[in-house]
Each structure stands twice: as structure tokens, then as C-alpha cells.
Design goal:
heterodimer; A: 9-stranded mixed β-sheet; 16 strands; 40% helix; elongated; B: 479 residues; alpha/beta
Amino acid sequence: MKWETIIGLEIHAQLNTKAKIFSSAATKFGEKPNSQACEVDIGFPGVLPVLNKQAVIKALKFGLAIEAKINKFNIFDRKNYFYPDLPKGYQISQLNFPIVSAGKIKIKVDDTTKIIGITRAHLEEDAGKLVHDMFNDYTAVDLNRAGTPLLEIVSEPDIRNAKEAVEYAKKIHSLVQYINICDGNMAEGSFRCDANVSIRIKGTNKFGTRTEIKNINSFKFLEKAIDFEVERQKCILEDGKKVVQETRLYDQVKNQTNSMRLKEEANDYRYFPDPDLLPVEISDSLLEQAKADLPELPEQKKIRFIKEIGLSEYDAEILTSQKSLADYFEALITNHKENPKLCVNWIIGELLYYLNKEQIEINQSPISAQDLSILIARIVDQTISGKIAKDVFKEMWLNKGSADEIIAIKGLKQITNENEINNIVDEIIANNPSQFDQLKSGNEKIIGFFVGQVMKATKGKANPKKVNQILREKLDLSKQ
Amino acid sequence: MQNTIKSLANGLKNKEFSSVELTTDYLNFINKSDLNAFITITDELAISQAKAADQNIANNSFNILTGMPYAHKDIFCTKGVKTSAGSKMLDNFISPYNATVSDKLDNSGAVMLGKTNLDEFAMGSSNENSYYGAVKNPWNLNKTPGGSSGGSAAAVAGELSVFATGTDTGGSIRQPSSLCGITGIKPTYGLVSRYGMIAYASSFDQAGVMTKTAEDSAILLNLIAGFDEKDSTSVNRNNEDYLKTINDSIQGLTIGLPKEFFSDGLDDKVANKIMLAVKEFESMGLKVKDISLPHSNYAIPSYYIIASCECSSNLLRLDGVRYGHRCQDPKDLQDLYLRSRSEGFGDEVKRRIMVGTYALSAGYYDAYYLKAQKARRLISDDFQKAFQSVDVIMGPVSPTTAFDLASIHDSASMYLSDIYTLSVNLAGLPAMSVPAGFSQNLPVGLQLIGNHWSEAKLLNIAHKFQEQTNFHNQTPAKI
């Protein structure tokens, strides 16, 4: 049987506001437990929520960036359930009137472009955390995270395989950082992803029974979890059994999904409008404020890189895939407007290679854009050759100093003095008379041998252009 | 003459007596009283506040409330002081923060004598739903003072305090004020901050004051009214001076008498006193018009559905995890929740939680919650229509005078005692109870209902009435 996979993603992006969504407590990660929970976050009797306007602006920025419908009238609801990490016994969220609806985003998988619909994005508050390993026999509650603003981004079931899901998630991940609404830190839980997965026989219209996979904390695991789940559902259906609608947790160690709770066991959340908060009316001025705060979006940046800087689409795509990468490129190119391709090659060829090898992010790179700019300047002004520059780059990566320091200490400065090169060339011709004869008799290939010998003698520091030029002159002279 | 803010402030200013002396007197009254009006008596705090007030008066840095003893309904959070909401659930709760109203009173230099008794989480009309026992009506110890602000009403009527705070979700300021013969005002929803007021039904709850006179109410409303950035439902508008217009002429104003407020359930003697009060107004030059509020019948069911829905959610935080009552040796999380809440809440609170939980459940939401909200709109529209042709609506506060303690056993009958007050909360309007006479030695309260933000007008009307009448000056015999 030929199966088709249907996937929808729910992404929770923590908005990077200084204060919480309904209180003035700070949102910083990793602080002492309960040091960032005020009376409102703890849910003391009598406290009231006050909406943080910054969270609204950030949600609006997202809506604008995905060309969505901004709902000028939206409502906060209470989602009621008991859990010790939920101090009020309800989460303030948005059910029927989310702030953002009907948006879209473009993804590219294997050179095919596809539009993924975004059903809605709504504001809500994060819960606290339970700590199980702090006290014997007791579970502790840390409410620092309680009330951190979240934007829940719900996709349409437009995604057809795990690769597309990863591309979509990466695209959203990149976008929220671009527009500075989320720090995107998956390890700290700032960006979390749940996947709704179902399969159906290709060509049919009715959706199959779906399961929701939670606890996915990296793109790699997103792909693996979906792949596992699709296979699991196929086995069930091909056995003639039925998939059960349920929430499943992904176990990254065993690479499998396990049942967490059945739909029948699910809570009736008894949503109703929160009477402590008035309906939010998005004024034109607030929307203008969000617009003004919206930076150049990845797609716009890509087009600018192609049209104004003259990059290839391929290069532009890579450089704009992450805001930090694009920022790095733009910082680098300020001093090298004449050589954009050289800058691109150094970023894509060297920098990304090193970053990938060490699995670190560009903002953790030991070589800043300013550092690399100096190295490139030394290639451009012919202080060193491109080949030597790669060695210098390696030293810089190991924090051995700046480009200039390494060039000086290692004596890597290129020999451009014609007399000096002339003498070396003479010496090599004298030592290799038969090869020189071959050259004279028209064996052009052998010129490479002489260049190589000169580079060897100078430890690569001779300017290869100059070496070639001098060799040609000598050859012409000897033929006369 | 009674001891009002106005009269006592003069005494303090002229140094006829000190705040410490005044406070000590009131603390002695409280200690000797058997009204059960207080849950907590904050005598040490009161004396230290009184000393500070005396110092400020000596330094000529004071206002009309400096050194004035008052009773605070035990539903307002008070930093460092037990805040129980009349519930076993919060019997051990010392609030770590102050309600905005508490802050304002502290800053005014008023002296808090203690926290007053109330129906648990303000759910009740007789004060019998308190974990701390029923409060007695100072006019007759066998009678209820009303509820939920029964402790506050009894404290003011019984001379245990100069004034008291109250909250009114469905009549909890007006009904006890009426039953105890004092003046009480429930302001427009959004006039006074709800921050730190333990929530019963968020879309109705409103803080107000309970005093001897309308003038005292105006003095206090000047203090506690105003926008609070901590309460999203408080309304940002210019503050008014409620004393400024209190002596304005009320001649020519039109009173609306809704026929639905004079229906079968109303006690004849109460009706008689209300009509006498209306006659008094007529003699003062006001016109009277019969009106109708046709959707009044929906007030009780709508109110009890919406209020129960909201309270079922508001009280979820009382789970035994972070504060409040926790059961002994819970065997697991479920057990902790179940037993802590079963043990911590009283019957009426549980009843409303269950009703609210049911009404919000999937499949019932539209039939109950949504329908009640629609009825609420109709009730509100009735008032708006009425206010096109009248300046103030008058009627009884309560269908009867104070009833016997332990005489009403079923909730539905108890709910009927709020029949004339609930619709005001559904519409978010300001309203007052003003003493309007006695029936068999028990006070009768006249209800004044105004349009939104018409507190100044209501206080003005009430004050003018009190200039012409003597009901508010009556005090129960010290028993």
C-alpha cells in the first residue's frame, strides 16, 4: 500500500521580553529557583494579570512576518487544569480569538519550494518546572518560568514528511530570531516543537487518526521521532489495526515514541474568557509600532544580496538562512565591497566548515567578522596568498592571535620583491637544466614544476603570479 | 449623633483625644463584643499605627483619615496579617503583600483594628457560611447581619469601628448595610482596584465602603477610587472629588421605581418604608416615575451561573501546593488535591464550584455560560434604557429585614434574598444602601442605583436624604 504522511507542527516560542507576560518579574533563564517569581506568578490569592505590551508587539511582528491576518480584537481565555507547575490552576491562553491567524511561510526541500500554511499563532503563559532530583521523597516546584510569554505557532497539516517538518521548523526558528522575538535556544527550552502525525492511503482525502508527539528538543530528533511514528502507524494499519488518538512522548535514547495519555483521559479544560483581562484591541498605532520594529526579513534580505551585492541564489540562500550568519556576512563585507565572492567563499568554505565540525553556533565562533575581515584584507593586498591564508585561519581558529600577528610571528609574508624571486628562479633553472630545456622546446606543462620548486624554496611565500611572470620572461629571453 | 469620620476627625485635629485613646476604646469595644464580627484583631498593629498617627497629627501632617480606626473585610490581602477569606482553606495564610485598597488605607494613616468576618470567599447572604462562625446582628443577636460583608456591617452598626471596607459581588455590601442600618456603597465596576481582593467572581467583584453616613462614604471613596495599573479591569479616568457635589441641590431629579422591585416576594412592611422614603424625596422636589426592568427575572439564574463559573476557576489555585490548607500525609498528587480541597472548603463554596465546573464543561458551555452572558447583556440594556428617562432608580435592598440566624437551610431560598441587588452587579452599576426606617426594630435599607460613574450623584442624593432624616443616626442598644 502507498501511504501518505500528514504532519502539522505546534511550535512554542518563548518571547524574549524582559518581563513576564502578565507580571513584572524577570524572565532570565537559569536563575536561582523561585527568585524570579513574584506574587502574580506564584498565584497568590487576589493577584491579577496585566498584559505586557511588549509580548503583544512581538506577536504582531510574527504575524506581519508571515503575512498573516492580524486579529484586531483578540481574547485571553483560561484553560483550567490542576498541575503543581501551574500556580493558578489555569493557564491564560487564547482559544477562539488568537492574535494572529492565516499566515504562511515558504520552505525549500530538495530544490522544491513549498508553502506551508500557518493556521494561527496565539499568546499564552508558560508553566513553571517540577524538579524531581532536589529533595528525597519530595518534588520541588520552581516557578521562575511560570508566566514567561509564549507564542504558540500552529501549522496547517500541509507537511508531508519528516524532512519538510524539519525545514519548516528551521524556517520558523530562523524567522523568530530574525525578527528578534525569541532567542531560539532549544537546549534551554525557548523553542519547543510538538508534531501531529497521521497517515492515510495516498489519493484519499480523509485524514487518518493522528497522534501528538511531545518532548522533541532538536531538529534531529524531530526528524527521527516523525520517521519512527510514521513507521509505527504503518505497521499498525498494515496489520489491520487502528491507530489510537493519543499523546506520545519521544524517547531520544531509545529512538521511539511512547504513549503518554489517551484522548479519553484528556482534560476538559473548560475554557472561558478570562474576566481579569479585557479583550485586547490592537490599535493602528500599536500595529505601526510593530511594523517599524520589523527588520528586513530573510526573503527580502536574500533578494537584496542577489540584486545589490551580486551573489548567486545559492550563496544568498545559505547566508540568509540564519540571521547571525547574514549579520556576519554583512559585517564582513563592509570593508570588502569589491570582493563579495571572496567573503562568501571564506564564510561558506572555511567558517561554516569549522563551525559544523565543532558543532557550534556562529555567535560562538572564535573568529569574529572583524578578525576575518583583516585576514581577507591581507589576501587582497597580497601580503599572503589564499593558500597561506587557510593556514592562518586555522591558527586564528585556535586562538593563536590575529591574522597580522600570526603572519608576523610565522614569517608568512608573501615575497613580492622581484629581485628576490628572480634570484630564486635563476637558481632553480640552473639546478634543473634538462627540465628547462623541455620547457624551451614547448612542453608548457612543465612550467608548473618550476612554480612548485619556487614555492617549495620559499615555503609558499612567493607570490605565484610574480613567479609565473618571471619564469615567462626568462623563457622568452632564452628563446631569443 | 454617631461617631462619624467627620466628627472624630475634628476631635483628633483639636486634640480632644488622641488616636491611641480612640483606638484603645474601639479595641475594648471589640474585645467586649459578642457579635463575632472580627476574625482577626490586630491590636498591636493598631496601637502602633495610632501612635504614628498621633505623631503626624502633632507634626501637623495629617488628613481626615489619619488616626481613624476602621475594620477591614478579611478578603483584602494585608501584608504580614492573616487573610482568611472566611475559609479554613486560608486559615494559615499570612499574605505576603498588600491589596491596593489596603495600601491606600495604610498610606492615609487610618488605623486597622482587625479583619472582619464574612461568608467564605464572600459566598453567602447571611454570614453563616464562615469557617469562623456566624456574625450576629447588633440590632438583634438572633438575627443575621446579612452577608457576605456581615462582619463589616455589624462592626460599624455595633460601634466596633468607625467605618469598614466591604466587597460586593451580588449585594455583599448593600444587603448587610441594609440589614444593619448603615450606609454602604458599591461603586461602578472598575472604579476601585480589585488587586489583592481575593477573587470570588471577577467580573462582578467590586470593593466599597460601609459607613454611618453618605458623607463618610464620600470621604472614603475619594481615597480608594482610582485607576490601578495592577488591575486591568480598573478604569483609567479622572479622579472625582465626591465631597465637592455632596451638597448640590437634588431638586428636579427623577426617581425611577421599577415595578419588578416591588413584586410579590417583598415584605409589606419593607415596601411601606421604601415608599415613605420615596415620598420624602418627593417632598424634597424630586419626581417619581414608574419604570420596568423587564429582564429582572433572569438576574438570579444568570448571576449564579456566571459567578459560579468564575469562582470554579478562581478557586483552583487553592490546591494545597503553595499555601493554604494541606491535608495530612497525602499519598499522591491526586490525593493531595482531593483531600486538601475537600477539607478546606465549606459546603456553599463546594456547591458553587461544582455548579460552575458543570456549566463550563464541554457540551454545556453554550447552554449555560453563554446564555447567562446574553441575559446579562439584556439586563444591562434594561438599565440603560431606564436611565434615559430617570436619574436614579430606587427600591428595596432586601425583600425582608434581617432574618433569624439558622432559619434558611436551602441555598435557593437564600439566593432569593439577593433578588434586588444582583442585577446591579450584572450591569456593573454603582448602588447604595441608605437607612430608610425600621420595621419591628430592625433596619430597612433603601437602594439607590445610578448609571455608571454616577457615584457623586448617588452620594449627593443620599446625603441630602440624611440631612432630612434621622434613620442613619439610630444606634442599636448596647447589649
